[in-house]
Write a structure and sequence with these properties.
Blueprint lengths: L1 H17 L2 H4 L9 H25 L2 H34 L1 E2 L3 E2 L3
Antiparallel strand pairs: 1-2
Helix pairs in contact: 1-3, 1-4, 3-4
């Protein structure tokens, strides 16, 4: 059950990250918009609450909340690292032409 809780934490955190202005540039143009950001925020909250529910079912009580918060730390680091790599690739792809040679600005 704890593996399921951690697995639900990652997409929840990723959805919340993509709902932020800073990371929304990584979304395709068709998804970018205020309505879609609210959908991403809602999905992120649902994912995190489902993760908390799994943790409460498995451990129970205050220990479940502490365990869930401690699961958020590696999940947040993983999502932040993935967003950072995606932003670098997106920026590099946007600024290259002609067989991947960077353009000068």
């Amino acid at each position: 059950m704890m593996a399921l809780a951690f697995t639900l934490t990652l997409p929840g955190l990723a959805a919340l990250a993509l709902a932020m202005d800073r990371h929304a540039a990584l979304l395709p143009p068709t998804i970018d918009g205020l309505r879609w950001r609210w959908v991403l925020r809602s999905l992120g909250c649902v994912g995190l609450m489902a993760s908390l529910a799994c943790t409460l079912t498995d451990v129970g009580g205050l220990l479940a909340v502490i365990t869930w918060i401690s699961m958020l730390t590696p999940g947040t680091l993983a999502v932040a690292g993935a967003a950072s790599i995606a932003a670098r690739r997106h920026h590099h792809r946007k600024n290259t032409k002609n067989n991947g040679i960077p353009t000068m600005r």
